[in-house]
Specification:
Radius of gyration: 12 Å
CATH superfamily: STAS domain
Strand order of the largest sheet: 1-2-3
Number of strands: 3
Order of helices and strands: EHEHE
Strand content: 15-25%
Structural class: alpha/beta
Number of helices: 2
Protein name: Anti-sigma factor antagonist
Distance between the termini: 22 Å
Pfam family, one: STAS
CATH class: Alpha Beta
Largest sheet: 3 strands, parallel
Helix content: 25-40%
CATH topology: Transcription Regulator spoIIAA
Number of domains: 1
């Protein structure tokens, strides 16, 4: 992530969550914190390979501009 700081065009930081079967409030708090810090630095956070339950919880909880990829 440090490589991206200072660049004019910053590629999204992708996190693959296919091995995450469940996300509770602690996990959501971590993802929200990462999203806010990334956005403050002009970096887009993209979550990929979400399981259906995790995807539904994140869609309800996180900001609308969070990218979720198949």
């Amino acid at each position: 992530m440090r490589r991206c700081i200072g660049r004019r065009h910053r590629p999204p930081v992708r996190r693959y969550l296919s091995r995450v079967p469940f996300c509770d409030s602690s996990g959501l708090a971590v993802l929200v914190g990462i999203q806010h810090r990334s956005r403050a630095q002009g970096i887009t956070l993209a979550l990929a390979n979400l399981r259906s339950h995790t995807s539904r919880v994140l869609c309800v909880t996180l900001d609308r501009d969070l990218q979720m990829m198949a």
